[in-house]
Amino acid sequence: MNICLFTESEISQPLAKHDERREHIVKVLHKGVGDTFDAGIIGGKAGRATITKIVPKGGEGEGDLYFNFLPQSDGKALYPLTMIIGFPRPIQLRRLLRDVAGLGVCTVHLTGTELGDKSYLKSTMVETGAAYQMLLDGTEQAASTHVPELHMHATLMECLEAVQKENGAQNKVMQIALDNIRPAMSLHDFLYGSHATEQEEAAVCRPVVAAIGSERGWTDRERNLLEQSGYTRCGMGLRVLRTETAATVAGAIILDAMGNLR
Questions:
Q1: C-alpha–C-alpha distance, residues 156 and 9, integer Å
Q2: pLDDT beyond 80 at 127
Q3: What string of DSSP letters covers 7-23?
Q4: What global pTM score does this model have?
């Protein structure tokens, strides 16, 4: 936790004794009255908080931590990278959401796929708030205040339609589908190949959508659908990667091509 995040209403309230953030500030960071820590409002300002009081043992509200927040910036902006991800098994999804949030992806679309396990779509992670918590954890790890949006779709067709509506005309967005079966070219060549000048400039200037299949990849029907929707199928070498690994690697490569990791 490299920043403590609060909602608008929480930023003016003390942290209760058993609040996870209070435990982190006092027991991990070893902060006391007069000390400061990095803080921010979810979706808003980032800055510094100064501890003004910690209620002593036996007092009313024992252990409560009072602080003043001083906003200093608008927080780290999310990058214009949208990721479409075939729904992985829930244990992988936790790590995946945390990592892509840490990278600064602006939107995540989780979708059912033809080869994906249909039971994963029934995961209670979204309903219980666990998925959002993973995004929040990744945001805190990155010392950011802006949390990626999360959307769920039953099928890839439904997902692609939603993404197109969200992003507008195809010529305004670079669309990439990661695939290790007969890709048209490598992701590296697509971004830096013979037409690198044109594509690299486009990557910097335009938003990017990257689609990554579930554990068993895309079917031929889904590949055709992606191509018909304007996606270029790109590979990332000969090794077959887990969905969560592929998402992190692809995200890092694309963000570097966009000039955001320099």
A1: 38
A2: no
A3: -TTGGGSPBPTT-HHHH
A4: 0.89
